[in-house]
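Re: export button greyed out
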Amino acid sequence: MSRTAAAFLALSTVRMATPLILAALGGLYSERSGVVNVALEGMMLAGAFTAAVVTHLTGSPWLGLAAALAAGLAVALVHAVAAVTCGADQVVSGLAINVLFLGLPPLLSGALFASTGETPPLARAELLPRAPVVAAFALVPATAWVLRRTRFGLRLRAAGENPAAAAAAGLSVARLRYAAVLLSGALAAAGGAYLSIGQASLFTRNMTAGRGFIALAALISGRWRPLPTMVACLLFGLAEAIAIQMQGAAALPAQLVQILPYAATLVVLAGLIGRSPAPRALGQPLGDDGGAPGATW
Amino acid sequence: MTAPPHPAERTARPRGLTRWTPLLAVPAAFVAAGALIAAVGDDPLATYGLLLGSALSWPDGIGYTLFYATPLVCTGLAVAVAFRAGLFNVGAEGQLIVAALAAAAVGVAGSRWAAAGWLLAPLAALAALAAITAGAAWGAMAGVLRARFGAHEVVTTILLNFIAAALAAWCTQAGLREPGDPVLESAPIAAGAHLARLGGWLPGLPARIPLNLAFPAALAAGALVYLLLWRTRWGFELRAVGASPAAAAYGGISAGRQVIVAMALSGGLAALAGINEVLGFRYRYFHGFSPGYGFTGIAVALLGRNRPAGVVAAAIFFGAMVRGGLFVGIFSDHVSRDLVMVLEGLVILFVAALRRPLARWSPGSARSAEAPPAPAPGAAADPGGGAA
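Workaround output, generated via the alternate export path:
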C-alpha cells in the first residue's frame, strides 16, 4: 500500500473510531457504576438528531453540539429513572430506549421538515471542525485519571463493585449511578452529534447503524478499562475504514464488504473475552437498603 | 462477561399486581405518545380514533390486523422461548431475514427448474423447511457464541442482524434477482410454493386480503411451544436453566447445550415470519421487507409475559397498531407511521419500569414482596424481595 493510502487509512480509522470512543467511554462510566447500558445506540441517535436539527435551525454546530448533550442527558435520565429508581431490568429498559429512538427522530423530522426521516442537509460551514476527534482521544486518559485518582471515580467504582458496602459507608449509590448514567448519555450523544454534523451533514433514519452496540462490544473487549477500550474502538474503526475503501476499489461486492466491521466485532467478542472481570454488581437493581439485593449468581 | 441481570425476574411468577403490568403499561404508553402527537400539532384523540377504527373494521381491518399479527406471533414466540431459557434474543430480525432468503431461494430454484416437475409437489414444504433450518442455524450461532465463548447474546445477535441483512442483500443481488429488475428483490417463486390465502375459504373474507396459511401455522406453533415448554421434561429443563442456571446445574442439567438448543428453537420460530412474507404474501424475497418485526417481537413477548397465549394476544394488539399506523401515516397531517415504533418503545419501557413497583405494591399484605419458595438449594433469591 502506498504511503498516502496508508495515511489516508489511518486518518479514516481515527474519524470512524471517534463516535465509538465517545459512546464507549459513556458506557464505561455507566457500567463501572453498575448500570448496564445497552441504550448507547438510542442515546447516539438522540444526539445525532438533535445536533442536526438545532444546527439547521441556528446555523451553529456548537449550539447543535450543546443541544445534543442536553438531549443525551434527557434520554439518560429516562434510563436512569427506569433502571435505578424503578429497578427495571436494565437490558430491557435500554432496549426500549433504542426502539423509541428508531421511531422518534423520523416522527419529529416528518413533523418539522415534512421529510421521510431525514433532516435538511447542512452547508459545509455549519459542520463541526476536527476538535471533537481530538477531544474524544483526550478523554481516554482523562477518564482513566478520573476513575483511578479522584474521589468521584473511587465512589463510582465502589457503587459498581460492592454497592452494599458503599451504602454502608454512607454513599448514595443511587445518586452515583444517576450521575454515571447521565454522563454516559452526554458522551454517547456527543458521539452521535459528531456523526451527523461532523462526518455527515444531516441526520438519516437509524444512521448509527449499530455503532452503539459496537461501542458496547468495544467496552466489553476492553474489560471496562479506558485504554484497552480505545484500542478496541480503533480496531473497529479500522474495520469500518477498510470497508469504505474496499467499496471504492470494488474488489468484493459492496454488501459483503459492509459485513466487515460487524464480523470483526463478533470475532473479537468470541475470541478475546474469556471470563471478563465485569464490575461485580453490574446489572443488579438496588435492594431496599440502597445496596445490592441478596441475590448473586 | 456481564451476567444477564436477573432473567428470573422476566419469567417470575406474578406477585402483587405485576399481572396487571401490561394493562397499565399500554394506556400509559398511549398517554405519553398522545402528548407527543399533540406537540407535533395533531389531535391525539382523532389520531387514536383513526388508529383503532382502521384496525378493527370488517373485513379489511381485522383481516389485515391478523395478517400483520402473523409475523409478530412468530417473533414474539421466538423471543419468549429465549427469555424462558434465560436468554435475550434480539436477533429475530436477522433470523427471519435468512429464513426468508432461504425460502425464496428454494422457491426460485423451483421456478427455474420447473421442467423438473417432481419438484413442484412438496415445494412449499421444502421452502418452509429450508427457512426454518436457516433461522434455527442463525439463532444457534449466537447460542454457540454464548455457550462456548461467553459472548453476551444481546450484542452478538444484534451484530448478526446486520450481517444477515448484508448477506441477504448480496445473495439477492448475486443469484436470485431477475435480470433487469431495478428493485433489490428476488425473482418470483414457483407457483407450487405459494401458501394459500385464507380469503377464499373463510366466509366474508375476500381473497384480496393477504391473510394466509401462515397465520394458523403460527397459532399452531404457539400451541406447540406451550406443549413443549410446559408439558415435557425437556421444556421443564429449559425453563429451569432460564430461572436459575446454578440450581439447574445442581440438578444435573447442562446449561450450555440448552442455550444452543433454545436459540435454535428461537430462530426456527422467527423463521415462520419469513415464511409468511415470502411464501404467503409477496411470493419473492424483497430486501427490507421487515419493518422491525424482530424488535416488535420483543415488545410482544414482554407484553405477553412470555406465555404463548399472551404472545398471541399481544401480537394481535400490535398487528392492530401496524394496520392503524399505516392509516395514521397516510391521513394525518403531521404524524407519520413511526408513531407505532414510538408506542412500542414506550410500552416496553413502561412494562420494564412498572414491574418492580407493582410487585411491591400489593394491598393488605406487609410481606407482599417476599420471594417465592426457592426451587432448589443454591437457587438465586428473588431480587424483588426485601433486603436479605
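Residues 64 and 125 of chain A are 13 Å apart (CA to CA). The button fix ships in the next patch.
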